[in-house]
Records
---
Amino acid sequence: MKVTEHLKQAAGKTLFSVEILPPLKGKSIQSIYDILDPIMEFKPSFVDVTYHREEYVYKKRENGLLEKFSMRKRPGTVGICAAIINHYKVDTVPHIICGGFSREETENALIDLNFLGIDNALLLRGDAIKSEAAFEPHPFGHLYALDLVSQVVNMNKGIYLDEELRDVAPSNFCIGVAGYPEKHFEAPNLKSDLKFLKAKIDAGAEYIVTQMFFDNKKYFEFVEKCKEAGINVPIIPGLKPLTGSKQCTSLPKIFHVDIPEDLEEAISQCKSEKDVKQVGMEWCINQSKELMKAGAPCLHYYTMGNAENTIRIAKELF
Ligand code: FAD
């Protein structure tokens, strides 16, 4: 079932969803079930599975020289989505990214999803890899998530890349896109970012999932600004319970988000990492309660390979 159908059926009740990463190459599907088994008790409406592009790794050869390899360390998004549906009978949302993929590779991944009966996709640009100063598209790929949205909208109309194909079956994807309450780090300002967010919605995206934020005020202001900009689709807040003291600096660095003074202060006073986890969880529970009270359509938790706190939060709220 589509994310938008879940939201419609909920009739104002706040839904619960989670996002997981594919395991590192070589690990079994059991590592995914180990994360999801305890979460399923709380009946998430859907499970997002992230998509990962290639990275460059260097291996030392016998002659002492380093050889450069291109490798996808976390493949398997499509297969994991199918396995989750099969195992738990819960809907999945595979992420699809522009970075590292040609339009044809994307089309083929979408065909796989379509054959598997998966009718959701969260469409993203992806980030630059370490060797790039800024995001560079695949030579036959897309530069912006907007272009990916247009490709999927076309497939939904039965327009594939090869325009000469005849008697084609249209796909039926429900399209989600990303939004940034604290603005995307490359955008010159929030107004510009919202202009391009609106372009993704106007092109056919049906809902937005936000980047994580730790101050609800930022989400509420973002929702208001989206409305003012003419964006009227559901905006699902993305939440991440802070689980370690180092995240006070790593999350701002990686995700370009602020840690509120009060949270940082509380963490700096913790005597152990166990205490940090407790503070992070309580902060996220308070954020979640306020968002639920304000009528957020769904609370989407980033597990980032560690679902322990998400489970404790779900126990409290769902
Ligand atoms: P876009 O919408 O393309 O925007 C990128 C930047 O370009 C923004 O600054 C925007 O303002 C600007 N822009 C957009 N369109 C135009 C235009 N036409 N002209 C000029 N400027 C423009 N990454 C992964 O690799 N895998 C994942 O699974 C993944 N999942 C994510 C899930 C969520 C909910 C979020 C919030 C992020 C996720 N990311 C993921 C990270 C994401 O790929 C990065 O944040 C990326 O830098 C931007 O992606 P986007 O889809 O928002 O890009």
---
Amino acid sequence: WENDLGSKMQVFKVGKDGTFSGEYHTAVSSTEEPIRLSQLTGFQHLDEDEQCTFGFTVNGKKFSDSTAVFVGQCFNGDDRKEVLHTSWLLREKVDSESDDWKATRTGRNTFSRI
Ligand code: BTN
């Protein structure tokens, strides 16, 4: 899958209970460190209409102290191509509790199959 920022993710086989894992390669970063591959783990509903909701966490521990969580839903577009509409929260590590207020960013990403 690739999103509108150019980030790529690979999702491995979804388990019978809806759990899945995969790899996330972000195209952008708030850190100064070189970007590296991150792990992801998530859970999806297994609805037969294939328009399932899901959530997953991305842990960029190899280059970042942040944690990102995504929630979304799969749709079949007008062209019958699958698309994932997601919203995310990105939690940055801050040094003190007084900086807590500025530690969370939010946004939206759309993913298409590549
Ligand atoms: C960091 O900046 O600390 C780690 C990388 C975070 C990448 C974020 S997650 C939400 C947004 N969507 C992406 O594809 N990349 C950014």
